[in-house]
Structure formats: C-alpha cells, structure tokens
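TICKET: design request
STATUS: open
ATTACHED STRUCTURE:
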C-alpha cells in the first residue's frame, strides 16, 4: 500500500533539469568530458540526499524572484530514482571515456540528454515510469504507486 503523497517542488526539479541539460550540451559542444564525472557525482549525491543536484541554483533564482515554487502533491521517490539512474548512466559514461571507449561514453551521455529533454520539455519522466513499472511487478523497495488518473511518468497537475 502506498503512503501519503508529499509536496514536491517541481520548480526545483525543472531548474536542476535545465542546468543539467545545459551542462551536458556544453560538454558535447566543447568536448570537455572531464565535466561528466563531476555531474555524475553531483547527481548521485543529490540522489542520496533526496534533493536535486542543483538546488543551490534554484534557491538563488528564487531569491532573485526569477522563479517561484510549484508545490505539487506527488511521490518524491520516483524522481529520486530517476536522478540516480541518470547519475549511474553518467558514471558509466565516465568509465567509458576513461577506458578509451568514447563512443560508448557519448551514447550514455546522449541517453541522459534525451531523457532530461523529454522530461523538461515533454513532461514525461522515463525514470519515474520505470519506478512505477518496478512497483507494479512487485520489486522490493519500489513501494509507491502512480497518482490516480495520471499516466505513470507524466507530470501531475
């Protein structure tokens, strides 16, 4: 049985996605792959903390009144899972770049770019959908169910 929903600030999630996408596209354009492990670490630390990796950017934008909180009753766990999967993909990309397999590194990096773009611009979180699918098939640790009337992975609200 799923526990009650929590207020999830989707503005914070979207701000981190926008920064993440910008960094990854800048990495591609400039071929500065040394930034990939830094982003992977930030994402994995954000997963462990349960907060998006660029919360500090969000706070600065809020303080400047450039962005407002968008609190939506939601399950934070699928978002945290998605962030962790993205961080794991970038950790894999880091290993690929370091072992002389840049093609594999770029494939993993572009998977993250595509999925972040889909979430940011299309409102569909593939990582969240996978989380709910894992719940549906009974994988331990995936205890949250999708919100009623919302397609798994779609942004509520």
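STATUS: resolved
RESOLUTION: sequence designed for all positions
ATTACHED SEQUENCE:
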């Amino acid at each position: 049985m799923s526990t009650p929903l929590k207020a999830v600030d989707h503005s914070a999630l979207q701000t981190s996605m926008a920064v993440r996408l910008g960094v990854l596209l800048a990495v591609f354009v400039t071929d500065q792959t040394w930034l990939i492990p830094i982003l992977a670490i930030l994402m994995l630390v954000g997963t462990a903390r349960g907060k998006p990796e660029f919360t500090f950017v969000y706070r600065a934008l809020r303080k400047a009144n450039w962005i407002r909180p968008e609190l939506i009753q939601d399950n934070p766990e699928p978002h945290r899972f998605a962030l962790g999967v993205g961080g794991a993909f970038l950790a894999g990309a880091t290993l690929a770049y370091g072992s002389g397999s840049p093609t594999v590194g770029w494939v993993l990096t572009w998977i993250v770019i595509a999925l972040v773009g889909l979430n940011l611009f299309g409102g569909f979180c593939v990582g969240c959908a996978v989380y709910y699918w894992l719940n549906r098939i009974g994988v331990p640790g995936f205890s949250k169910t999708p919100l009623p009337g919302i397609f798994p992975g779609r942004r509520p609200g």
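CLOSING REMARK: The helical segments are 10-30, 35-49, 55-63, 76-98, 102-122, 126-136. The mean pLDDT is 96.
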